[in-house]
Amino acid sequence: MSKSLGIGCVVLTMAGTAGAEAPPKEWPLPWPTSSEVELPAERELPEGSPFLGVCERLERELRAAESLMAAEVGCSVYKRYEGAGPIRGAATLRLVGDDLGITDVWFLAVETSSGWHLGPVLGDGSYTGVGGWSQGVTVDDIVVTLLDGAAVVVARARGFMEDTDLGVNAQTEEYSASVSVCLVTDSPAGAPACARALTHRRRTLSKASDEEKQVPPRESYGPLGTRDWSRPLTWDPKAGAFKVGPEKGKRPQGQTIPALPKRATAAAVVEAYAARAEKP
To answer: 10 Å Cβ neighbour count for 51?
Structure first.
């Protein structure tokens, strides 16, 4: 950690794809994926672990939303690092299971004076046991910035999905990038306010085989072609604000994109996105 004029910054880089290799830094482009996912060796946290509470909370929320496939899951700590100011620590946790497919959910946890708190889901690499389906998650980096008694955690993550449905001759590929933000003030409660903002999504629908005349049904899959959208959010630790890039492309269906100024504080980003829950 380095400190200057009351501003400290910690950067952590990590890769966690479903495949054997991490993707290149350029975005967007595909990277190697595999239907054979190597699950973490540590499937269960030890008794008394401070992360058990946040893992159990995430599992309850996913089961309530009916988005957790595995009957039993384990939770492992992918990376843990020291915090700064009102943040005592942070960790990237991974919820995994392998029943009727693969459950592979990555999420952020933040420790304050009141204990560990569940942050945003950074990415979901889960997929069903159906052939032709694969997903992957990469956590690019996490930055902690100390700003006048408050602390900001910014995490960048990417996701990949590929689905081949030979029954209707459909090939779907989707790439997404997001920025997750947690703001922690030096208050007695010490609870972080967090939100996840989509910054890039590209979806391509094509025919799985050009030799067949069958075209994927438009009412279920939409038109053939690529739908690309982006609005960059770049965190500037020295300025303590996000640089908000121009919105380009056609917005993803069912996605709420709140308005932001060209320079937005972490508090403004959290408030804008936390107030607008993303539709499935």
So the answer is: 19
Token pair 């989707």 in the structure block, residue? 174
Q: Which residues pair with 136 in a beta bridge?
A: 160
Instruction: List the one residue out of 94, 115, 114, 112 whose CA is nearest residue 104.
Output: 94
DSSP code per residue over the chain: -EEETTEEEEEEE----SSSSPPPSSSS------SS----S--SPPTT-TTHHHHHHHHHHHHHTT----SS-EEEEEEEEE--TT--EEEEEEEEE-SSEEEEEEEEEEEETTEEEEEEEEEE--EESSTTEEEEEEEEEEEEEEETTEEEEEEEEEEEEEEEETTTTEEEEEEEEEEEEEEEES-SS-PPEEEEEEEEEEEEEEES-TT------HHHH--SEEEEEE--EEEETTTTEEEEPPPEEPPPTT-------SEE-HHHHHHHHHTSPPP-
Contact at 8 Å (CB) between 182 and 152? yes
Residue 55's nearest CA partner among 137, 117, 138 is 117
pLDDT one-digit tens code per residue, 4-50:
333 455 544 444 433 323 333 444 444 433 334 455 444 567 778 88
pTM to 2 decimals?
Answer: 0.81
**Cα(175)–Cα(162) distance, rounded to whole angstroms?**
9
